[in-house]
Please model this.
Amino acid sequence: MDASLKRRSPSLDEVQPKRSRSNVDERELTQSCVAGSRKSPLAVTQTNTIVAALKKIHPDYDFPIETMQTLGDRILHLALPKIGQKGLFTKDLENALNEKRVDFLVHSLKDLPTKMPEGMALGCVFKRDNPFDCVIFHSKHVGKKLEDLAPNSVIGTSSLRRVAQLKRKYPTLIFQSVRGNLNTRLRKLEEDGVYDAIILAKAGIDRMNWTEKIGQILEEEIAYAVGQGAMAVEIRDDDQFMMKVLSKITDMKTMLTVIAERAFMRKLDGGCSTPVGCNVTYEDGMLHLRGVCLSVDGKDCVEDRMSAPINFDLPRPEGEKEKTFFVSDVGVVVDTLYKNEYEKATKLGDDVATKLIELGADEILKTVKLAIPNVANIQLPVANSGTMKFV
Model:
């Protein structure tokens, strides 16, 4: 196997569990696997979606859910970029996974670091929902679009990626941080008297069955976040049993698409709080990846687009008894059959990022990171303070 595909520890070059009773996993006997989730309504909804998909394939199994708060859920008085930590919504959950209190975690993929923590692996990527951002307007603006809002209208979002891109197109709007789960943000929109609209991921709104609240879908205005719209399942990187359990709900098209996106982000050394975005399309066997990197104010912007041939539907080998897997150096569980496609998708993301670096993305991101103080030095309210406005 190519050395670049080997996992840091432990090595799982090919996983094919033996079937002797002495090697049967205890969970196969108890027919129970515990899911871990954040407590937010959206997180629980997403976990229930994964559990329902697993139940269809494993109807005799139970998948109880244990919910918990994460650091990102507890720190609500700061804008996300001000917190400046990777794994903001995942670290507490990963502690439970590492301690074997839960067997798998369900995440929004965009919340996961592009290189999984030691001992953890991305065990499954579920079929992607709509990856675009959308706008929900205050009731006084029903029927309007962003271009219809008056100058100095306030737009709520905690994403520098959204702010940087929208400032380029709508320079007269003001952007303020808005935190909390979806229910909290919608309540703030209607009750706080601060926001004229808020921007959210469409996939989350759809999953909560609130699609009718959407006033505008930002398909042209914003490159979306890496992995946005996809749900992922995290496991321990030596958990052969969960690899097998999850393998039938992995969507290979989504998997290889986000592999390219995450390689792009990783090469840039960006994170979910940096102004980096992408757009991906697939036509005639070619995966097309557009990458974008911006300054905080959106004035500096570099982008490029590249393509690679990717096959999402390879025929299974004749006589194959069980799928085998490897865990890559960045902690992704990959069907061995798709090793070459994984490498091509990774290279596509790397190549787009390399081109953006040549165009100046490195310098842009250095400036962005210097502008975001460490959390220890920040004690700022979010919605009602002019100090948190992006103007």
User: Anything to note?
Assistant: The mean pLDDT is 86. The domain at 133-218 is CATH 3.40.190.10 (D-Maltodextrin-Binding Protein; domain 2). The chain has two domains: 26-131+226-371, 133-218.
